[in-house]
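Design a sequence for this backbone.
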């Protein structure tokens, strides 16, 4: 079982902080995960991810020659769409993004939502889903992704490092997935941090055939065989599931799930390797060890990827990640510079009209107003959030606006227009605030900036409504919250609707804003009667009733104070 933890609910976040400190030479933390330091020519960003508990997957695979970034969810839990969006934005180098993950419902939904949002912002995004688990379904497209994640991620990381374009990296990833098959077995279940019992048990003297990596038991229990018999079972089943037109070259992974000793894996490999050679196969650079784990599960799996010339080249290619290294070239040639983020992507401020620059001054004043509001109410917002959350909403919002204001002020000093100021502020908010609210507010400011643009000769109240719409759409696209879920959306959407109605009725904009702000304040207070349906507060739904939502409250405070400008 997992013995070392502080607060079990924060296990994933706590361990990740230690990971980031340890491997700061090759990656950096961003809200939602980690991205590799940049060096050399820009390349396609390969973003992998899923829940925690599988190390070295997924964050341990970030580095030169492997993944560009990893999204890190809670233990065995899909990361949110906001986390995926944040990591992809931070890792994007101008050549497009590949999102890759195992075939699970939550991952498909959240990575898909993030992809839609990124595409709306003009970023070309492709999705490669791993489907290697032959025990989970007959149809390939319905299979889970387990240890075969590793082969697919490795091929795409090498393809991106080799300079292939987005089409080429996607094609290589799909080829790797089509060529990969896995079967696993469990000897014992895994235990979540803080739990007293494992998620499942295996009868004494048996194994579970066809396990999943999120604590799912096998599809059936069988008497525990000898190592030689198990090796025959795994090899025979995977070979029988070989892809059509499979060749004679394979790579193999004998993967430990968490507590199976390396010596036991070596014992399995002795027979597996003999079986593969007896089948007429040439084995190329196999791996034996812990590659995709499942906390403390006792178990193992066999993965085969059938190779053609291109897949073999990418499989053999150098990589330097925290959890995996393959070296032909000197390691010094692989390590990126920790300062690469700044030099690899120098910002070019777009031309702006006089009207855009004038409105930019107003936007900067708005950011200053938000900063005053949040600093004044930081403690209050934290106390509201602590009733059914982790109490960090006030602190997180202050960190976000401070970074946003600094970035916005720098853009304004460089004579930028309103769109660029808001975009710069949003990117800084997302990077430095952390948490879901940081990503949402960052994307929202960028959405408002995109709606305004810096090319207009004049701006009207209708344009400001469009900016409010852009702000709200970014949040609903990423968070997928609706009215009644007890989030900031409960105050935000009524605010935008009221603003639109007032402007359409011919009300002057200052009065329209004040009316809409009053609506937001009323709706934020009304969230006290609601039970949360999303986020960390959801498990404490009953405790939350009677207290307004912190996000809705901060939104109402902000728009109210902005009305006094």
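Sequence:
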């Amino acid at each position: 079982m997992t013995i070392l933890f502080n607060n079990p609910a924060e296990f994933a976040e706590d361990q990740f902080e230690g990971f980031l400190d340890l491997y700061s030479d090759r990656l950096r933390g961003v809200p939602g995960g980690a991205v590799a330091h940049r060096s050399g020519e820009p390349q396609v960003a390969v973003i992998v991810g899923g829940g925690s508990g599988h190390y070295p997957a997924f964050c341990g695979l970030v580095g030169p020659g492997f993944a560009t970034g990893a999204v890190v969810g809670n233990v065995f839990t899909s990361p949110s769409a906001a986390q995926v969006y944040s990591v992809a934005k931070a890792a994007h180098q101008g050549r497009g993004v590949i999102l890759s993950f195992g075939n699970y419902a939550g991952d498909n939904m959240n990575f898909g939502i993030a992809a839609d949002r990124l595409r709306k912002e003009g970023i070309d995004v492709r999705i490669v889903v791993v489907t290697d688990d032959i025990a989970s379904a007959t149809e390939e497209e319905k299979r889970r992704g387990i240890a075969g994640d590793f082969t697919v991620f490795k091929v795409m990381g090498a393809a991106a490092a080799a300079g292939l374009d987005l089409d080429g990296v996607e094609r290589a990833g799909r080829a790797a997935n089509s060529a990969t098959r896995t079967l696993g077995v469990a000897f014992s279940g895994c235990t979540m941090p803080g739990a007293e019992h494992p998620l499942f048990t295996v009868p004494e003297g048996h194994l579970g055939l066809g396990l999943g990596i999120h604590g799912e038991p096998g599809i059936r229990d069988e008497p525990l065989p000898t190592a030689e018999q198990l090796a025959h079972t795994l090899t025979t089943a995977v070979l029988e599931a070989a892809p059509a037109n499979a060749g004679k070259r394979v790579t193999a992974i004998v993967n430990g799930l968490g507590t199976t000793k390396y010596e036991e894996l070596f014992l399995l490999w002795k027979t597996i390797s003999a079986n593969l050679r007896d089948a007429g196969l040439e084995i190329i650079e196999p791996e034996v060890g812990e590659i995709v784990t499942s906390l403390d599960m006792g178990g193992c799996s066999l993965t085969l990827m059938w190779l053609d010339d291109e897949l073999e080249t990418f499989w053999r290619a150098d990589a330097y990640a925290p959890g995996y290294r393959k070296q032909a070239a000197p390691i010094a040639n692989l390590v990126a510079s920790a300062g690469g983020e700044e030099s690899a992507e120098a910002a070019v401020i777009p031309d702006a009209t006089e009207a855009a620059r004038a409105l930019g001054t107003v936007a900067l004043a708005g950011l200053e107003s938000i900063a005053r509001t949040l600093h004044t109410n930081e403690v209050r917002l934290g106390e509201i959030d602590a009733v059914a959350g982790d109490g960090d909403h006030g602190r997180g919002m202050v960190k976000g606006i401070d970074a946003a204001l600094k970035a916005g002020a720098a853009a304004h000093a460089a004579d930028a227009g309103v769109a660029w100021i808001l975009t710069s502020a949003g990117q800084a908010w997302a990077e430095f605030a952390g948490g879901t609210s940081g990503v949402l507010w960052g994307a929202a400011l960028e959405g408002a900036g995109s709606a305004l643009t810096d090319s207009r000769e004049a701006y009207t109240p209708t344009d400001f409504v469009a900016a409010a719409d852009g702000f709200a759409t970014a949040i609903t696209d990423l968070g997928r919250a609706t009215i009644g879920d007890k989030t900031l959306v409960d105050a935000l959407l009524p605010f935008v609707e009221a603003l639109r109605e007032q402007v359409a009725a011919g009300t002057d904009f200052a009065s329209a804003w004040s009316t809409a702000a009053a609506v937001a304040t009323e709706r934020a207070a009304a969230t006290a009667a609601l039970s949360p349906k999303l986020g960390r507060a959801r498990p404490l739904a009953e405790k939350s009733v009677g207290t307004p939502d912190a996000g809705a409250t901060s939104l109402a405070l902000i728009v109210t104070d902005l009305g006094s400008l």
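The mean pLDDT is 91.
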